[in-house]
Sequence to fold (350 residues):
Amino acid sequence: MTPKHTLVSLANELGVSRQTVSNAINSPHRVKPETLERVRAAISEAGYRPSAAGRQLRTRRSMDLAMRLYPSTDGINGSILDRFLHSLTESAQLEGYRLTLFTADDDADEISEYEQLLDTADLDGFVLTNTHHADARTDWLLEREVPFVAFGRPWSARSDPFDAAHAWVDIDGGAGTAAATEMFLARGHRKVGFLGWPEGSGAGDDRRSGWRRAMAAGAAGTDFAALTVSVEDSVRNGVRGAEALVAQGATAIVCASDSLALGAAAAWRQLMPDAGEPAVVGFDDTPVAAAVGLSSVSQPIEAAAQHTVSLLTHQLTGYGQTEPEQHLLLKSELVHRRSDPFITRGEPVS
Fold:
């Protein structure tokens, strides 16, 4: 039987101190990057598992983080939060943390869950998602000095999100919809419509603002004020929204989600069967969009999750030389494809 590795035996094999191995597990910011990589590789190869009970006594932490789990809607755009959750769990596990999931009916109910979890589970911190205007959750956590990181920037017309009192990671959706709009303008479209969500969602407003900026800069002289429709997120509403935009004269449509874009593309084929591939771009680059060849805006979800964990663990362990950026806005990317390869036999293009 292979002898069980201990913290001391690992330190001896690596030629480092016992404290260095301990820091690599509990306080990685205190270890030089090259040493940290070597120690973690050895820990992984040896299958070493530190005593959770002993570590909690030393650090006075539960090594447990929590996040609210939202119900899936149409099963399409829900894959984005699934990717975020998977990467968040993986990143937290590499740092020695577990992730507790809970559900809530609304923000007030979520705050009640915070109180209960802090009292009963002694959680170390929270990850917030779906940030929006007048978000009471961040104020509640800040007032009580509870560690947390938001996946989503603060949404307020009165303040700069980069001056926020709390850490956040977000993705520049406006840049993605602007790129999609600019692509259509470059192809000769003057009436590019935007199919989005009702105002106030934060992320949805950001995506609409990108379309608006691109239209103002690239479609001078075109009255595009009526070329935007707001609906709740679903494929069926995407059909209805596209019908309204085409009636307003839109010759191309940029959407706030892949669900809306799939509905818009279906409506396009019905309304203009001889017009060729639908001039429609979605958002989120979901597996469904890739399967049917729908152009879409891709988000670096895995990078966002990894940085979220880095921010939160640094709050809990103390900041060091590798302190992560407190307010990080990641870039989105437009992915060009030919529409519906099952019909057009097209291939994705860059």
Q: What stands out?
A: The chain is about 45% helix and 15% strand. The two ends are 54 Å apart (CA to CA). Residues 78-94 form the longest helix (17 residues).
